[in-house]
Structures are given as structure tokens and as C-alpha cells.
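Per reviewer request, we include the raw input and output of the structure prediction for the construct analysed in the revised manuscript.
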Amino acid sequence: MNYKISGDNLQLVTMELGPDEKVFAEAGSMVYMSGNVNMDTKMRGGLTKAIGRKFAGETMFLTEFTSTGGAGLVSFGGNAPGTIKAIDLRGGREFIVQKDAFLCAEDLVEMSIAFQKRLGATFFGGEGFILERLVGDGTVFIHACGDFVEFDLQPDQRMKVDTGSVVGWDSTVDYDIERVKGIKSMFFGGEGLFLTSLKGPGKVLIQSMTLHNLASALSPYMPSGQTSGSSGMGAMFRETLRR
């Protein structure tokens, strides 16, 4: 499979599929496809894994795309302004992502739920206590709001990050939640009560903008009523951001 990521901060990933080659994606992420690509919605992995995806904040059903009668094209995009990154999982690499980060992947990639290992992350993680584990002999594409910032943490190297800004990390990275120190910092610092603590070794991906912050910034400019066409569109956009 060949692919191309195009655009600046409203990116698409376009895949060139060989005959009978298959990829799967989050429902509703397909932008366009060639006429010889077939689309089929399934519970990949059966009911148990489908329920797990629902707990992780994703849909129970995933959509598969298969090229027939020659090479085909299919393109995917995220649900908010942002960027797309390819992660190669071949060689036994395992990657953990927050909910809503998964976009699409090759057929050999397996997606399952990953429970938080620590009590602090479970109750104060902000993104829920269930994460998504991605593993398999292929490439997966994830989406972030804004731009990606990548760090390669060395053994025992630590980093503290705003909880909602962390997109994903290698499974070798230790992850926990810690309380912001100091009463004034907690209540008047504007950074929330908790931070994500990450300890290497391994790669960490951070997004420059969170969907929550984007919605908060746009909220004062959105029409409050639905009496006209423009206000109706505003309500629809607010509903999209809440998702």
C-alpha cells in the first residue's frame, strides 16, 4: 500500500490500494474513493472487541475498504482541523493512543482497549480510564487537533504535559497523572488540577491544540439561537465540536 498525506492543517491521507488490498477506518472518516473500491461496515474482532471500542469512546462498527479489479484510491480525514501522522507498527511495536485519535489502518493492524495501570490515571486522566492499543504488522494513521509535536524520551527522562494534549506514546513509556502543586497554581493557573506525567524510554506524541480548547475559543462567536439558517449551522458546528 502506498499513501500520501496532503494539506496543511486540514489534512487528508490518501491510500493507493492494490487488487484485493484492504484497509479499515473509523466510521464517517472517508472523504472520497475510486469507483472500484468496495465499502463494508463490520464489527471487527467480534462483539467483545466492538464493545471495548465503545467504552474507549469509538464506534462499535468500523468500515472496511477493499479494492477490486485493479488499483484503487481511498482518502480519509479527521473530524476537526488538524494533522495526520503515520505510525509503522511492524517489528512488534505497540502504540497507545487516547480516544478519538485513531483514523484508519492497514488490515493487519489490530485495535483493542488498554486499561490504565495506575489509580491516578484511572480517576483523573480527563480522557477516561480506557485507552486504545494498536499493534500489528502494518501502518496505522492517527489524527490530532492542530499540529503534532514529537518527543523521543530517553530512559528515565520525564515530561509533564497538559492531560488533554497527549495523543499517544509507545507502550514502553510509563504514564501517570499527578496533581498540580500549590493552591494558587491549582485554582488560578488556568492549567487545570492535574498533569500527565510521562517517563521514557519511548516516543510521545502531543497535539498543539485540543478539541476542547478549540470549542471554547469559538463558542463566543457562535449564534445562540436556531431561528435562521446561519444559527442552525452554528448549532450543528457546536454539536460537531462536542463530539
